[in-house]
Write a structure and sequence with these properties.
The structure holds 2 protein chains of 2 kinds. Chain A contains 6 helices and 15 strands. By secondary structure, chain A is an alpha/beta fold. Chain A has 2 domains: 92 residues, Translation factors (Elongation Factor Tu (Ef-tu), domain 3, Beta Barrel), CATH 2.40.30; 157 residues, Nucleotide-binding domain of ferredoxin-NADP reductase (FNR) module (Rossmann fold). The longest helix of chain A is centred in the C-terminal third of the chain and has 13 residues. The two termini of chain A are 34 Å apart. Chain B has a 7-stranded mixed sheet with strand order 1-11-10-9-8-2-3, with helices on both faces. In chain B, strands 7-6-13-12 form a 4-stranded antiparallel sheet, with no helix packed on it. A two-stranded antiparallel ribbon of chain B has the order 4-5. By secondary structure, chain B is α+β, with helices and mostly antiparallel strands. In chain B, a hairpin with a 2-residue loop joins β6 and β7. Classes of the chains: A alpha/beta, B alpha+beta. The interface between A and B is large, with 42 and 54 residues.
């Protein structure tokens, strides 16, 4: 009988500072057999565990083609994440996972990809971008539209720069509270839609970030002819078990840890924006 | 149905001890309802005399009272706050014992010791709740090892209801008052006789060891008419015919504000509910910080923390939480598990300190809100 609660020890191989309170932890499973078995899809998450403290649900941001090293970008905001922030390379964490449904990257083959992200919300889609660029010729054009509040919130700067260099790829950044150093667009991410051409019949949209961004952004894209069935969103709720059992991550009839976190937009349209759902 | 009549016996009330003894001989720990602190709770029993003989419960919104009638009735108390849930989905289930080591830690699952437990006195609503919990914890894609271990050792002797409480509405939920499935034995108390029917192989085996005579047709039909009368006498009902959709559509109904003004978010309804399954996971290190116990505990969607994610709460108000609970229980549960999450036991009505009645709330929520004309809303009193 498989016990989904069993936690596998993992070593922090590297800590990459992304911002003042945000760090990417590169983890390696200690057990060789667990390491060999661990395969994930971009958009899935792990329950990351710290001995004596507990677990938190964190997206895997690294490339699914390199499952030996698992990157998790964590903002130190809660009891567990603050305790994790004190750890150093060589220290131990634990992993349960991977859980949930990832991005539909097989279905997306041959199509143009529009990625719309906001804030730290871009973490769940980073692995998808890496996956696509590793198979660049299998996908159409790629447009990455990313919005942050302030320039300090722009994580993965080098990655954005690297992505920009791929053929047939546009990377547009915006900040709605810029400083003097900001050389990109000023405003919210939905304003970037006006700066790109999108072929509504050939495109698939991957979106993650604040729900308000999805609620405002999707109707604009729909008016441009993109069907709701070609848009995917990664949603966030409190998660404790990862297997649709603890009840916290419900959104309407869905358990987002199991049915999501990536959901096709038309399935969640009626729940997004409902108070208390 | 020849199977049923073959496995239908009669046991004089005074002989119930033979059944308890037979269960003990088979290695079961026998658990039954016992009176404690003005209510009944499940306790390990060895003798029929420990059952709440002659007691009856009166339940109303926010009120539970036991009274002694002086009769020899064994199963006059319909139910206490506990359903069968604690036997299978433990209020606190240790999951793992984690030990720190040089290169990290080791985890060992702490599965419960397999134990054979025979519960006597479960009601049809409790069994319906058990069947629903089975579907949650042991389905095609997932079999919870902790739940499954407890479930496998459980033997249920249901008691068919012949008396309805004011809070009962199982008839309208089609879950009772006759135990439908999931029981090993079902008992109907008809005066001094107990009609005993088996519902499983294990039930038949036990019944065969105590050699009960076949029940007469008269007894079978007397039991059936008592159960039927019990259903007829239920004064509450829940109309689920338009669910789930009608409740989804009632998301903005003003009744939510009304009920939120009464609800204390005390979590009682979720604690007594036979089907609520929310739980939280807790990590408790020992003082040496070398060992930690990793356990799951019942949680409730009425707590502040239930909808909390880094810096924001999805359901900050009691209105949000009551709506979450009721909408999940009566509507989204159907989408998730193909069944309502409510079995009509009425416990959430009884044990609500302010007597919020789920049937009344649903009926108000499904009644289109007719706003009085604006001019009348702020009319001053006489």
């Amino acid at each position: 009988m498989v016990n989904p609660y069993v936690i596998h020890p993992a070593t922090i191989v590297e800590k990459i500072r992304e911002a003042e309170d945000i760090t990417t932890y590169r983890l390696q499973l200690v057990d060789v057999e667990a390491q060999r078995r661990f395969r994930f899809k971009a958009g899935q998450f792990n329950m990351v565990y710290l001995f004596g403290v507990g677990e938190v649900a964190i997206s895997i941001v690294s490339d699914p083609d390199e499952p030996e090293l698992l990157d998790h970008t964590i903002r130190a905001v809660g009891r567990t994440t603050k305790a994790i922030a004190a750890l150093q390379p060589g220290d131990a964490l634990g992993i349960r996972g991977p859980f949930g449904a990832g991005w539909p990257l097989e279905e997306a083959k041959g199509r143009n990809i529009v990625i719309v992200t906001g804030g730290l919300g871009c973490a769940p889609v980073v692995g998808a971008i890496e996956y696509i660029f590793r198979r660049r010729e299998e996908y159409g054009s790629v447009k990455i539209l990313h919005g942050v509040k302030t320039p300090h919130d722009l994580l993965y700067r080098e990655r954005f720069d690297a992505w920009r260099r791929h053929p047939d790829t546009e990377v547009l950044l915006t900040s709605d509270q810029p400083d003097k150093t900001w050389r990109y667009h000023v405003g919210v991410v939905t304003e970037l839609f006006e700066q790109v051409s999108i072929d509504p019949e050939k495109s698939m949209v991957l979106m993650c970030g604040p729900e308000i961004m999805m609620r405002l952004g999707v109707p604009i894209l729909m008016r441009r002819g993109i069907p709701a069935t070609a848009m995917y969103v990664s949603l966030e709720r409190h998660m404790e078990c990862g297997i649709g059992l603890c009840g916290h991550c419900q959104m309407g009839p869905y358990f987002l840890c199991k049915d999501g976190p990536v959901m096709r937009y038309d399935r969640v349209e009626q729940w997004l924006g409902r108070a208390g759902v | 149905m020849p199977m049923v009549s073959q496995s239908c016996g009669v046991l004089p009330r005074v002989d119930l001890q033979r059944l308890l003894d037979a269960l003990s001989a088979e290695g079961y720990r026998v658990v039954g309802p016992t009176v404690r602190e003005g209510s009944v709770v499940w306790e390990t029993i060895s003798s029929v005399s420990e059952l709440p003989i002659g007691w009856r419960d009166q339940q109303e919104p926010g009120r539970y009272r036991l009274e002694q009638t002086g009769s020899q009735e064994l199963f006059g108390v319909v139910h206490g706050p506990q359903s069968l849930k604690p036997f299978v989905f433990a209020p606190r289930e240790p999951l793992l014992q984690i030990t720190r080591r040089q290169d990290g830690f080791t985890t060992s699952p702490t599965l419960p010791q397999p134990e054979r437990v025979a519960v006597i006195g479960a009601r049809a609503c409790d069994l319906a709740g058990l069947v629903i919990q089975d579907r949650i914890f042991m389905n095609e894609t997932y079999r919870d090892p902790y739940y499954a271990t407890r479930r496998e050792g459980l033997f249920v002797i249901a008691v068919n209801c012949t008396r309805a409480l004011a809070t009962c509405f199982c008839a309208s939920m089609e879950t009772g008052p006759r135990a439908q499935r999931g029981y090993d034995l079902a008992v109907t108390e008809v005066d001094e006789q107990l009609l005993v029917e088996s519902g499983s192989e294990a039930g038949r085996d036990i019944l065969s060891t105590i050699l009960v005579p076949a029940a007469s047709d008269e007894l079978i039909s007397a039991a059936a008419s008592s159960i039927h009368a019990c259903a007829q006498s239920q004064i509450r009902r829940l109309d689920h015919s338009r669910l789930p959709q009608a409740l989804y559509e009632a998301h903005e109904h003003p009744r939510w504000d009304d009920v939120a003004g009464r609800c204390l978010a005390c979590t009682n309804c979720t604690m007594v509910c036979p089907t609520c399954f929310c739980h939280t996971v807790e990590e408790t290190p020992d003082l040496s910080h070398q060992h930690a116990a990793h356990a799951r505990l019942w949680d409730s969607c009425f707590t502040q923390e239930h909808g909390y994610i880094h810096g924001k709460n999805i359901r900050p108000t009691i209105k949000d939480r009551y709506r979450m609970w009721l909408t999940h229980k009566l509507a989204s549960w159907i989408d998730q598990f193909g069944t309502s999450g409510c079995v009509g036991c009425g416990r959430c009505i009884t044990w609500c300190p302010v007597g919020i009645d789920v049937t009344e709330e649903l009926s108000a929520l499904l009644t289109p809100d007719v706003q009085p004309p604006l001019a009348l809303q702020h009319k001053d009193g006489p």
